[in-house]
């Protein structure tokens, strides 16, 4: 793996221009070690609660606390079990009480140190303590760095579904330490990469072409990786600035997610079978294939998408999911329960081709069901 | 009591001009019976969850449901125990799950039918279901009609203090049915009146003079009552529009509240001893007396405030609170724990006289302590 030298690799800065709530995303190796300085430059508070999990804390909590202490910032760690089950009221309530107990006031902050689960939970807690406390994201997974840490969506799951409870609460600062990605497993890295590719597929065809040419460098960890993360954050920031609360265009970020969520639900969120980014990978291929079936785009576009995702090692077909076979009916049921259902009508992100995604809010359920039945009947094998 | 005829008494409308989140406050007798119509005129949703409590539901749930059903709106009631203890995570979680279970989607709404506790809890639940659902306030107490239902502050209490957890979430509509006030006890009505008087004391000296002249008509329930409620809502709306998230001027609404909260905390929120509005009444007199002591205003201003609040039957002295005597030290402790403490400094709303309140963020704790000691030593008796 190519080594990055924190002394010479420049830190990229993406500004999210949200008026009075504008904030910086810094991207580069070694940012956990310089977090105290970056925070002290921007926030007046001298008390921070650090929310992390049992996997991430042993790796990065000590250097983060040290870097805060060096700036005179008092840090209170709140460590949770790792995993999706932590995104629940059961864990939210003690986190909220720990933050209040740490006497976090208006100028102080809550720091999320971890992946998407920790960012979503800690952001929600920050959003409701004293009707909104300052919040800093230090994402340690690729998925969190390019997607969930940017844009202010926070929340937990309810027994009825994922992310059904939460608030929009923008961070005051995002520190994406790219050196932290070296501790990810290849499977975790690939899952995050699905969201990177998504930005190309939505509206940046030239970025998708660049990914096709440079993905090996991104996976090996050099400058191209930082470049890809910065481009992803910039793409997401642009959408968030245009439509912070998802009244319109922001829904494009759900490309591949309606099918993806249905696959996650149908496999009971069992990460041994499927993780979010893998569901999105299969979902994006399905969205392109479904668009081709509806005569919205050529089938060669779907094939090109599939070729690239397969090249990086992501699953692209439902049949690749290990375990009991899934039925089209079970998937349709999960789609109907998805939160993006509007007055009974199905809303999908479809596409006219790579980089030409759009919001379709009148997709007939019957078409989706026959498409899924067809995909599953065809053996759903690559090249089928 | 003067009877209001819903057929002839006009409904007042106050518009809260918050841009894309602007909303109407309607004030008048009989609005619960016409709620369905008013809601159908403004919201597209056809599913509503009604959050209420065991005291209010027997009186007003049936006519509200009937009025919604007549407009084709399906209503799901969620009934909670009455009282401040309901403002907790313990009750919030099942309310959130009931709202999700009632399949409340983006265009549907959560309705709060009750006093301040129900409005704060239901508003918080609406604010976090699907990261913000539509919300309608139908306040049934005077306090809720003139204060808590307007302005978007929602929340629950934590073991460490009141209202420490919540969000800013503006309603889409407020229906203040003034006929509902006829079911309040005189003590409840008086407690709400303290907040009405507050608007005069903050920056409307002519309104305070009008209250001195007309309070008997307001208590007896005629046109003057509607007028006073409308003027209070207009005063609050103006402050909220200028400073929605309390970064500045909105703090003026806390006039009398720092002392008031301390009194509530020191009496363990025991409503047999003190309710919120009574604490605010005593607190407003203390704020005026303290301002006089600091040579900010003449003592005759404090005496005039006290005379009026005493005339309507509100307590104005600490010694009037039944039960064990309170100490200045216990009150100071409660003040220090109050959420309005900023970096150890005491923030108070002080005044240059009636209608001339201002934010003082550098009040020395030692001055407050000797003031309270003095007030308690002087026997704290009226005219002392």
TrEMBL record, chains A, B:
Co-factor binding details: Binds 1 divalent metal cation per subunit. Can use either Co(2+) or Zn(2+).
Main location: cytoplasm
Named cofactor requirement(s): NAD(+); Co(2+); Zn(2+)
Binding sites annotated in the UniProt record for NAD(+): 116-120, 140-141, 153, 162
Keyword match Protein transport: no
Enzyme class name: lyase
Keyword Zinc attached: yes
Amino-acid positions noted as binding Zn(2+) in the UniProt annotation, renumbered to this chain: 195, 257, 276
Alphabetic keyword roster: Amino-acid biosynthesis, Aromatic amino acid biosynthesis, Cobalt, Cytoplasm, Lyase, Metal-binding, NAD, Nucleotide-binding, Zinc
Metabolic or biological pathway: Metabolic intermediate biosynthesis; chorismate biosynthesis; chorismate from D-erythrose 4-phosphate and phosphoenolpyruvate: step 2/7
Residues of the 3-dehydroquinate synthase N-terminal domain: 78-190
3-dehydroquinate synthase C-terminal domain residues: 192-341
Functional description taken from the UniProt entry: Catalyzes the conversion of 3-deoxy-D-arabino-heptulosonate 7-phosphate (DAHP) to dehydroquinate (DHQ).
Protein name: 3-dehydroquinate synthase
Gene this chain is encoded by: aroB
